[in-house]
Amino acid sequence: MSAVASSRLAGTQARDTGPREPQPGEPVLTVAGVGKTYVEPVLSDIDLTLISGEVLALTGENGAGKSTLSKIIGGLVSPTHGSMNYQGAPFAPVSRSDAEAQGVRMVMQELNLLPTLTIAENLFLNQLPRIKGLGWISRGKLREDARAAMARVGLDSLDPDTPVSALGIGHQQMVEIARNLIGDCRVLILDEPTAMLTGREVDLLFEQVERLKREGVAIIYISHRLEELARIANRIAVLRDGKLVSVGAIADYATDRLVTLMVGREIGEKIDLGERRIGAPVLRVDGLTRGTVVRDVSFEVRRGEIFGISGLIGAGRTELLRMIFGADPTDSGTVSLGEPPVPAKIKSPSDAVRHGIAMITEDRKGEGLLLTQSIGANLALGNFDAVSRYGVVDGEREAALSHRQIDAMHIRSSSWQQPVGELSGGNQQKVVIGRWLERDCEVLLFDEPTRGIDVGAKFDIYGLLGAQARSGKALVVVSSDLRELMLICDRIGVMSAGRMVETFGRDEWTQDSLLAAAFSGYAKREELLTRETS
């Protein structure tokens, strides 16, 4: 009997009534009727079974519920309803560490490493080897154990005493994976694990996945890369709008079928944004680049036009808007404004505002609002000249501005002095938009303008976007919701792996073509990486 098997047997005997460890091919974890509701349901009545020794691919559009489901299984989020059963016993982890102690581990997109510590210290942070009788850390034993763990994922060429901060992002990802492979692991969740890896590192990861399968580990593999899923998975589960729409053998799912399942039917909803006249270009972006995050992006937006930007998480959409707005530095490229557009020097958000650019951030609570302050105070931010007299805020002017925007934006509130934190998400978003509209900027950048708000508020926002376009503004809208972009945009540019890979006109796009374009850059990058490492 192996040492691992002996330790598991001893642990089972110590628990007396502990669950029986499943054999390969048997269910290890079942999810029954699991759902999660925040302001609105984000996950609804999920029924799923994980099989020992099998890879279950989990896929779907951005916002489909993949991360929420995996975080519930991994103990990071508690379900609103439903139950789970793990190794024959009820499973309701109260934290990530609780789930890990029971053998359920998760490698998240956001790295969970301490950059000031070494590779070895990060690997064994919660179980540092001690010198018997002294309590000191045994550095020799720590290095030995670390080398063994690193060798499993192809990091044996690195010094275990190297600070994690000195590693590239790909190596850091492999350290995170190695950390989660230490000790007893019965369920492993991998959330977009190859996003930052080279072709060789992907091959090493897949070798470990095959080893874990042979050892009976059940693996949930989350990825947008359909070619990876076909290579590594046994079964696939597709989520759409928080619901499980299909589960089956991966061999039964061609790419076209998967795309159709992910996006659903073509949207039948229509919205009348009013008669608009699309004029000459007033915003031109040429060759905008920052490392590999945004790579040589060029496009233009005309007066009165709503230009949408689509793409997967990590495609560079938000980073592109932040670069245009001067919030993030650029390596190269220009932003031009006016009729005709001429290059503008934008090194900071204040420069962007002076040039007539506004940006409505995706993080309205963290970056867009002062939640404890009143509606009036939040509307006044950035509009000091409009509410002040002789350098001092004038109450009457602040009240006038507040009433003007509350009426124009249809903000539901008890008064202009109500704290913004007491408003619904949709009304909070209207406050952010109202603040910028007061400045009458010519170019408006919207990053996920309807995220986390109800359907009624969404259509209010759409109406506001239409009104701005009718007034001759140039709008750029980033959204993870393809149907939303198709509803309101005149053109949609698709970003993939940092590049703007294709632009569609209203009569040219379909949901399938937009999603296929979003995947295309990653497929090409995989081909290049394979060539480089072959």
Tell me what you see in this structure.
The protein has 4 domains: 159 residues, P-loop containing nucleotide triphosphate hydrolases (Rossmann fold, 3-Layer(aba) Sandwich); 68 residues, no CATH class; 167 residues, P-loop containing nucleotide triphosphate hydrolases (Rossmann fold); 69 residues, no CATH class. Helix content is 36%, strand content 24%. It is built from 19 helices and 22 strands. A hairpin with a 2-residue loop joins strand 9 and strand 10. The longest helix is centred in the C-terminal third of the chain and has 23 residues. The N terminus is likely disordered.
Mean pLDDT: 83
Number of strands: 22
CATH class of the largest domain: Alpha Beta
Report the span from N to C terminus: 39 Å
**Gross CATH architecture of the largest domain:** 3-Layer(aba) Sandwich
The best one-word shape is: globular
Give the name of the CATH superfamily of the largest domain. P-loop containing nucleotide triphosphate hydrolases
Contiguous helical run count: 19
**CATH topology value of the largest domain:** Rossmann fold
Extract low-pLDDT stretches.
Answer: 1-18
Structural class: alpha/beta
The percent range for strand residues is 15-25%
Largest sheet: 6 strands, mixed
What share of the residues lie within helices? 25-40%
InterPro entries: AAA+_ATPase, ABC_carbohydrate_import_ATPase, ABC_transporter-like_ATP-bd, ABC_transporter-like_CS, P-loop_NTPase
Organism: Pararobbsia alpina
GO molecular function, one term: ATP hydrolysis activity
Keywords: ATP-binding, Cell inner membrane, Cell membrane, Membrane, Nucleotide-binding, Repeat, Sugar transport, Translocase, Transport
